[in-house]
Design goal:
Length: 149
């Protein structure tokens, strides 16, 4: 986890990584993630995908920036790879890739084995929902802004 971000990021891998080939990045509150983990422990249904959850869409996008997304793409299904080889495949500077890899390791997205990094998945799915507030809440906010007293 990122330092000082206990209430901000929840990055749990809910699966047996050796079996799972798909990872789902989603947005859930820490409470929702804890409830899902509890439900999995008491369920007889096996999970079909690993899940890494972030507390907000903004956090997901900050951890999975465009540059880091490219790194995940070059690491999909590749097995353990050195940072130097990852940089070569991504066409980027090794120092910049090292910094991004460190952030992905801290967030629980990548694994590290010896001198190699590993993204143990073949597929990635991203899930989150952006919803409008309920109509009465929206109307109340609009009235407060348009009808000065």
């Amino acid at each position: 986890m990122l330092a000082g971000s206990v209430e901000v990021i929840t990055a749990f891998r809910v699966c047996m990584v050796g079996i799972m080939k798909t990872v789902i990045f989603d947005v859930q509150s820490p409470e929702e993630t804890a409830a899902n983990i509890k439900s999995l422990w008491t369920s007889d249904k096996p999970e079909t995908a690993a899940r890494i959850s972030f507390a907000t869409p903004e956090l997901l996008f900050s951890v999975l920036s465009a540059e880091r997304w490219v790194l995940l793409k070059v690491l999909l299904g590749a097995g353990p790879v050195s940072i130097q080889e990852t940089a070569r495949r991504a066409g980027r500077d090794v120092a910049a890739v090292y910094k991004d890899v460190k952030a992905l390791l801290n967030a629980g997205v990548l694994d590290q084995a010896g001198g190699s990094i590993w993204f143990p998945f073949d597929r990635v799915k991203v899930e989150f929902l952006l919803e409008a507030p309920p109509a009465d809440e929206l109307m109340g906010a609009l009235r407060q802004r348009r009808l000065p007293r």
